[in-house]
Amino acid sequence: MAGVFFCSDGLKRRAVIVIKVGIVGATGYTGVELLRFLALHPEAELRVVTSRADAGTPVSALFPNLRKYVDLAFSAPSMDSLSACDVVFFATPNGTAMTMTGELLKAGVKVIDLSADFRIKDVKVWEHWYRMTHACPELLDEAVYGLCEINRAAITKARLVANPGCYPTAVQLGFLPLLRAGVIDPGSLIADCKSGVSGAGRKAELGILHCEVSESFKAYAIGGHRHLPEIKQGLDLVSKTPVGLTFMPHLVPMIRGIQASLYARLSDTRVDLQQLFEDSYRHEPFVDVLPAGQSPETRSVRGSNHCQLAVCRPQGGDTVVVFAVEDNLVKGAAGQAVQNMNLMFGVPETTGLDVVAALP
Amino acid sequence: MAGVFFCSDGLKRRAVIVIKVGIVGATGYTGVELLRFLALHPEAELRVVTSRADAGTPVSALFPNLRKYVDLAFSAPSMDSLSACDVVFFATPNGTAMTMTGELLKAGVKVIDLSADFRIKDVKVWEHWYRMTHACPELLDEAVYGLCEINRAAITKARLVANPGCYPTAVQLGFLPLLRAGVIDPGSLIADCKSGVSGAGRKAELGILHCEVSESFKAYAIGGHRHLPEIKQGLDLVSKTPVGLTFMPHLVPMIRGIQASLYARLSDTRVDLQQLFEDSYRHEPFVDVLPAGQSPETRSVRGSNHCQLAVCRPQGGDTVVVFAVEDNLVKGAAGQAVQNMNLMFGVPETTGLDVVAALP
Amino acid sequence: MAGVFFCSDGLKRRAVIVIKVGIVGATGYTGVELLRFLALHPEAELRVVTSRADAGTPVSALFPNLRKYVDLAFSAPSMDSLSACDVVFFATPNGTAMTMTGELLKAGVKVIDLSADFRIKDVKVWEHWYRMTHACPELLDEAVYGLCEINRAAITKARLVANPGCYPTAVQLGFLPLLRAGVIDPGSLIADCKSGVSGAGRKAELGILHCEVSESFKAYAIGGHRHLPEIKQGLDLVSKTPVGLTFMPHLVPMIRGIQASLYARLSDTRVDLQQLFEDSYRHEPFVDVLPAGQSPETRSVRGSNHCQLAVCRPQGGDTVVVFAVEDNLVKGAAGQAVQNMNLMFGVPETTGLDVVAALP
Amino acid sequence: MAGVFFCSDGLKRRAVIVIKVGIVGATGYTGVELLRFLALHPEAELRVVTSRADAGTPVSALFPNLRKYVDLAFSAPSMDSLSACDVVFFATPNGTAMTMTGELLKAGVKVIDLSADFRIKDVKVWEHWYRMTHACPELLDEAVYGLCEINRAAITKARLVANPGCYPTAVQLGFLPLLRAGVIDPGSLIADCKSGVSGAGRKAELGILHCEVSESFKAYAIGGHRHLPEIKQGLDLVSKTPVGLTFMPHLVPMIRGIQASLYARLSDTRVDLQQLFEDSYRHEPFVDVLPAGQSPETRSVRGSNHCQLAVCRPQGGDTVVVFAVEDNLVKGAAGQAVQNMNLMFGVPETTGLDVVAALP
Question: What pLDDT shows up at residue C14?
């Protein structure tokens, strides 16, 4: 288990837990983000950083931003080294975490999966969208969906957390107050979402070359994006009737950031939308409702774990529009994963996450 | 009037019209685009290029891309020189064209206004949105709205053309086939539109600095954008009942391009949407419907006068999504203006506009 | 041979040559640029566009910017179809053109190679830098180095043209006036060059992903870039003593454009540098010397075949600095290739190349 | 004076100094960077943030990235509030700090000036380049040039620190090891430097609009940049003979980052350059020499206070090339200013500066 010692923090004394951390598949963009946050996390200690392809290479040779901060080299994934950790993060492509999670849990290691393996409760839906046979459907029930603002209590007790997708985090945080309050027609929701290119990951593909995406804008995955069932699952949980959702992702010529413009028809036009949103997130450290009339920009949360929201009713009509922005690699991935780790290990939720977006 | 001579074009003989052109306010981005197209237009001759602030400066000193192509210097606007032209383009801020157009028309000069002065038929609506008193409301009736694909016949005979806004061009071309066919509910249209930064013009403002817009994405003008009444006016003309439209513009960190994702609820789900769109634009030289399943990218039309469209029905539901892309400075401004000029002077509509987007 | 007919061009009559064109390897960025220029070239006709991997695919499916302009599909390369062309362009990786050129020449087809196979006269130097055995060293003597401004006469008579590299075009055009005039010390030339990412080509590699190059700047190939021997070969031809050259390429987070800042020590500080440069390029259609005090920007020539130069002497010292900008895909590749074709077939040198850079 | 209390830091006990901080002119990019670092600095407390134009506006309204981190509003600058601080940072245009510094020093307040007012020792040189009369030349002698790696001891005792310019930091850190070791000819140094656009500041000017700088590259200030005398002053201090320096700045289409490629002729080609650089900076927390053969990228230090260097000798010739990268707003401005503050107040030099660059 995690090492414990005490230190004084002014007058308060609190057990400092040194959490031994492993990361599987740390050569992608969510992996290097995990490294950025964990390298400076005062209560975490990086023990194992795996990459089959780059085993033996110093982490800082691949990611020179980590020089002076991470001394480890990548190692081939092995149950020996991983099972000596308190928690293992999977920053792997879909289909990997599900093959190792069972054994890690048996070894007493907690697991936070940043891939999609444990996000969908209905294994048939998962297998339909991800075109694989699930390797351990028996763990789907236990897995806690790690949207901290919604599942905080369950996460605190979880052994296995399914870290939400980037789009699902923004879309759910934006729609949930309206659905919970029952003030919109759940039948025709529209989520017009835009993502920076890092959402596509770090892999050698023509479609995400600089010269292919820069100075251009388009919708993509117009036949259906895998985050659709994840979002629908989350919204259905709080909606009286199953939601009808059109989810359309777009690619923005920038590195980081997701912006979602969410449209719904108001069933109750007397509701004070601004008040509803402010009340919903008043106590959240990482969700922030802007004053009325402002529109959130992705740069305001670039590199930070914050999600900024705004709500408006154009021309006073019966359509409500919610705007949500987040950094897809942070609140949409690695930052939320660290937030989950903090909850799972009883350290203050914001530990290691006090990063201010660098502007400009 | 325009000079006329004859030349042989293979076997065909056609009168070549040398159109004497003036441009008022050519130091903005739509102005320099006009210069790019007109400098190489085989039947146009640049005579006067005005700028009060830069009078005396060679055009190519301000715009070195025009070295070897434009030898003129900017001159202060004067009725003397402008009235010697066959056509005058206004590439000015809103509120200028309306003060000079009457006199030019009287002098027998045709006018193509790229600003918003003559786009809205209802002067009260115009004055509400543009916060000015209109200087010549008596010309609003005569002004022809220059969306070539819709008003071709009227443009051919027009003395005064109101060149459409950039967003209105894309949104109308996308929604019109659906409204005309009567297959959507006109009451809840959503136009989620994204524009490159050049749409904001060339002016010294903090909000469009490179460091303010690059690597970020946001909705803007969320309280109401001036293109809303222009779009609504155009859609209402073909809709049985007035449309209900939510129009939300967003700023993309790129120079050129507009992408519109248009959402509507189908009232008739049996319609063959692909066929409907292909039929609607089969004979249009500058509107192009992509094969089913493709999503248009702004870069495919960057620098060119084409608008590319696609249509789909996500998950086979009752929501139809239309995608439209154009270059906001070309089909959304200067290119369409030249297209209008061609129509007004009886030269082939594509003359001077055969430009292929440079990819990448 | 090329088809010939006559048309009247005002009063002049000139034989219009319809040049039948083949392109080998047209799925890269120089390939699609060739297509852009040749599709609108009034005296060229695209006959064959090859790609082994994409055979059967319509060209416009891969490059939607060419919809309505190119109706061909990619075909597998075959000597049958290529030998029916008047000229074949190779837009292939290094090492391909040299395996097919001999046979094409025998079939009476002219060849313009945009790769490096025929650029270096000394086969040992070539084999050292390109790490291959040359397949037809016997053609190296015949091959004409296609820097039009230097070798115009030879190009006019050539069967085989080695189209220059992108950096070598800019660096040679910048240094040559100084070396010819004998006013600099040739022993310590420095070429600090910067290129947009398209210079690296269209291939699935991590290093040129948007997220790897955007918002960053670096020198690359610091151990030695393959354009070094090509530049040195060109400069040595006009220098009294072999040049000592430090060539350092850098990667700019933009798609297109090369800027070179060239430094040399003046051996003669009385020379009128501005005059020297203006005199050197006064009659060149595609090389343009800016007025004293101006600094050329890559965007001024983006998409066009122009090279803009400027020269200065900082603080009046003994160091001369020359600035050169070009579009690496145009004057640095496809545009210059078309310029070479025009020379080889006796059509006016600027035919099909009258493109004004779109600004912004 | 600064408040002092004690806390335990594991076994060590150290006085925690709460430094009361004022910032004059905090609405520019160096200002908001100061706010980012100081908001999370454990031993600093923001007291006064001035802006004449935005007095009364909450800081987080202008800079939404600071929501939840900075509660202050901008106030008009007043000696009353500023003189209650322990240190005042000037993030103002040149010419402001020199009018207030004298009074602040008299009030016992330390001053760190991020503008150029106190960087040049020779007032005539300053007045020539900055085209102003200096308001307090009598302070120039006392002012310590705040390049921490060079002047650490003096900074520790300073009341007034002139924070170096962005280019001068990179160029001096790169050239100094060579000049100190006496292994290069100081007579013909070339500094080809490239900067992101934020170096031009946050002001409404056409030349730094997104559409003017994006997708382009150019040299600028080719007639002479103000950082030239500052660099020369620094290099002359360690060179046996005055240096001859050609300094050429270029604008990169990115927000942050400076890269310098520095060229010199080796007078001693036997020196082990890699060893020389590693030895020079072995103990520096914020200067990092990359392994031989690597080239530093600006993104590796984006948002962080690190400067990364590399050195090479192309083709084993007698030219040495040094590469330096830094974030112009951090090590080139606000980060170095905080580093200076730490030194001046005796807190560990890296306090508040442990930020890892977010990659990608």
Answer: 59
Give the gap in angstroms from C-alpha D263 to the nearest C-alpha of chain C.
8
Give A197's contacts in chain C (Cβ within 8 Å).
209-211, 214
ipTM of model over 0.85: yes
State the Cα–Cα distance between residues B243 and B175, nearest whole angstrom.
11
CA distance C200 to C189: 25
B246 touches chain A (CB under 8 A): yes
At residue D13, the pLDDT reads 52
Sort strands C218-219 and A87-90 into parallel, antiparallel or unpaired: unpaired
Choose the mutation target among C203, C205, C210 for the interface with A, i.e. most A CBs under 10 Å: C210
Q: Does A224 touch chain B (CB under 8 A)?
A: yes
Residues of chain D with pLDDT under 70: 1-15
Does the distance separating the beta carbons of A359 and D288 come in below 8 Å? no
Distance CA B332, CA D299 (A): 36
How many domains does one find in chain B? 2
For residue D201, what is the nearest residue in chain B, using CA coordinates? B211
Are D286 and D338 in contact by the 8 Å Cβ rule? The answer is no
**Quick check: C339 pLDDT over 80?**
yes
**Does the beta carbon of A198 lie under 8 angstroms from any beta carbon of chain C?**
yes
- pLDDT value for A17: 77
Q: Determine contact: A204 vs chain C, CB below 8 A.
A: yes
Asked if residue A3 has pLDDT above 90, the reply is no
In this prediction, residue D300 carries a pLDDT of 98
| Res. B14 pLDDT band, cuts 50 70 90 | low
Which residues of chain D does A39 touch, with a Cβ-Cβ cutoff of 8 Å?
Answer: 356
Beta bridge partners of D288: D308
Average pLDDT over residues C238-261: 97
User: What residues of D act catalytically?
Assistant: 166
Q: Do β-strands C319-326 and C258-265 pair in parallel, antiparallel, or remain unpaired?
A: antiparallel
Asked if A356 is an interface residue toward chain D (Cβ–Cβ < 8 A), one would say yes
Q: Is D293 on the interface with A (CB under 8 A)?
A: no
Res. A124: pLDDT tops 70: yes
Contacts of residue C309 in chain B, CB cutoff 8 Å?
none
Contacts across the A-D interface (CB distance below 8 Å): 93
Query: In CATH, what number is assigned to the domain containing residue C314?
Result: 3.30.360.10
The answer as to whether A355 is a domain residue is: no
Whether C214 and A255 lie within 8 Å, measured CB to CB? yes
Rounded average pLDDT over B74-80: 96
Per-residue pLDDT, D14? 60
Q: Between the CA of residue C52 and those of C74, C92, C299, D337, what are the distances in Å? A: 8, 11, 34, 58
Confidence of residue C7 (pLDDT cuts 50, 70, 90): very low
Put simply, the chain A residues between 308 and 347 with a CB less than 8 A from any chain B CB are: 310, 312, 314-315, 317, 319, 321, 323, 325
Does A182 share its domain with A288?
yes
**How far C326 CA sits from the closest chain D CA (Å)?**
11
Residue C214 forms contact with D (CB below 8 Å)? yes
Indicate if C166 belongs to the active site.
yes
| C-alpha distance from A51 to closest chain D C-alpha (Å) | 18
Nearest to A263 by CA among A311, A325, A316: A311
- Average pLDDT of chain D is 95
Domain of C8 in residue numbering reads as 3-142
Residue A313, SS3 per DSSP:
coil
pLDDT in tens, D303-317: 999 999 999 999 999
Please enumerate in sequence order all residues whose Cβ is within 8 A of that of D59, keeping only pairs 6 or more positions apart, or say none: D26, D35, D49, D66, D70, D71, D72, D73, D74
- Mean pLDDT rounded to a whole number for chain A: 95
Q: Residue B312 falls within a domain, yes or no? A: yes
Any alpha helices (H) in chain D, and if so which ranges?
Answer: 29-39, 59-62, 79-82, 97-106, 123-130, 148-156, 166-181, 210-213, 227-236, 273-281, 334-345
Please tell me whether residues B130 and B178 are part of one structural domain. no
Q: Which two tokens stand for residue C135?
A: 């397949």
**Is A302 among the domain residues?**
yes
